[in-house]
Q: What sequence folds into this?
């Protein structure tokens, strides 16, 4: 169906067949054709200057929902939400380190560090909206498939909301920090003998047949929250958009969210110009990069393999939305090898910033784009770091302590006797 004359303030629409349903419909996909849904809002009643002023003013409010880096943008996220489940989240920094400019071969790159969110990844921005929606529609339980961060975030927000949470993760390859979080926050955690793509198929069946509310990023409310990474970045840049936004890409929810944020910000007069998106995958999990290289004539599925377990995904669910995001922003999709992403991670870590492996594909991808002269050294670039350094301590210790020969930047610990002469020896050049 389609709404006729009087549209509600927000509603859900299928991006494939155009079917429209009310905002409170709980189905994770279009019930007419199985396509992906998106939230549509009536244009905000306020003028752009007034909206921008409110967004910024709220940041200075008492810490809490009003100042949340998601809910201070509420007019263009979920205007009808009254009771909100917020940690709070967002308000993450834009960082700069000269060493990383040099590493990437660019004059000035800013890093939007989403690892500063409450559970250590950008997922909290989508989850505050998703769990708020779950409460609004009276869901009795929430569920997701995950490579680890979505599950950690869902577990935390469900605990706050008093909702039972079910998470499905691959039995091998979820980073230690993430698995530990989901257990500690109290989610029922299923270790599935299979990969992420199997987990996603299974949890979609569970939501269909067992009535749990699905909170993977195919859920369009998650996307609304994740838009605020871009909105907040634009606000931090005083609404003067960068030339490029570079981000890691796995299941493609974030790529979709960035595209939607930019489309709406432009439509509603918040920005005059749209930056180009560069979505970066790990080479062993790069079906989207392959489709891009073929002009998006075909969707690909692969058996994923990469050290960046967060983006070890072979059949990204938000493919259709992400194609739109890349096309509309005149964007690019590329991939980086595990060796390159680990080198980028070592550089980010050694600069004192730190991030998890999947996040580092953004900087590795940027270096590649600069070398290929697609990004010019003087371009204004923001790279998004999606997760915290402590998410994956196992890989860190292998990299620094065990890999032989030592990889670039490996920082071997030195065992000593409890003797001052040993320290003296170590300090000698
Ligand atoms: N970076 C990190 C740290 C992630 O955890 C993910 C996705 C991505 C990048 C890619 O984002 O899927 O929106 O393209 N993690 C999901 C999870 C799949 O289950 O935690 P995407």
A:
């Amino acid at each position: 169906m389609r709404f006729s004359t009087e549209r509600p303030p927000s509603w859900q629409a299928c991006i494939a067949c155009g079917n429209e349903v009310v905002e409170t419909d709980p189905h994770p996909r279009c019930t007419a054709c199985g396509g992906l849904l998106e939230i549509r809002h009536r244009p905000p009643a306020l003028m752009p200057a007034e909206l921008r002023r409110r967004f910024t003013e709220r940041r200075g409010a008492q810490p809490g929902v009003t100042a949340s880096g998601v809910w201070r943008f509420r007019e263009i996220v979920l205007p009808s939400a009254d009771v909100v489940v917020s940690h709070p989240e967002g308000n993450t920094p834009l960082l700069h380190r000269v060493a990383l400019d040099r590493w990437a071969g660019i004059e000035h790159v800013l890093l939007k560090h989403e690892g500063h969110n409450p559970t250590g990844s950008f997922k909290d921005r989508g989850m505050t909206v998703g769990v708020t929606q779950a409460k609004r529609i009276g869901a009795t339980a929430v569920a997701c498939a995950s490579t680890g961060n979505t599950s950690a975030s869902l577990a935390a927000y469900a605990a706050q909301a008093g909702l039972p949470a079910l998470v499905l993760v691959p039995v091998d390859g979820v980073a230690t920090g993430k698995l530990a979080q989901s257990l500690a926050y109290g989610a029922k955690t299923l270790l599935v003998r299979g990969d992420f793509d199997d987990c996603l198929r299974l949890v979609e069946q569970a939501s269909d047949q067992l009535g749990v509310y699905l909170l993977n990023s195919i859920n369009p409310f998650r996307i609304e929250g994740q838009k605020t990474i871009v909105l907040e970045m634009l606000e931090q840049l005083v609404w003067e958009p960068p030339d490029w936004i570079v981000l890691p890409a796995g299941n493609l929810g974030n790529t979709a969210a960035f595209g939607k944020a930019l489309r709406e910000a432009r439509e509603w007069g918040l920005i005059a110009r749209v930056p180009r998106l560069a979505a970066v995958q790990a080479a062993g999990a790069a079906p989207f990069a392959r489709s891009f290289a073929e002009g998006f004539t075909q969707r690909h599925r692969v058996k994923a393999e990469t050290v960046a377990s967060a983006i070890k995904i072979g059949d990204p669910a938000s493919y259709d939305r992400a194609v739109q995001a890349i096309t509309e922003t005149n964007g690019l999709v590329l991939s980086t090898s595990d060796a390159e992403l680990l080198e980028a991670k070592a550089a980010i870590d050694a600069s004192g910033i730190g991030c998890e492996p999947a996040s580092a594909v953004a900087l590795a991808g940027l270096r590649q784009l600069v070398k290929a002269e697609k990004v010019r050294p003087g371009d204004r670039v923001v790279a998004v770091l999606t997760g915290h350094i402590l998410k994956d301590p196992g890989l860190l210790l292998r990299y620094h302590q065990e890999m032989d020969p030592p990889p670039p930047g490996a920082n071997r610990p030195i065992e000593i006797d409890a003797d001052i002469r040993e320290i003296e020896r170590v300090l000698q050049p």
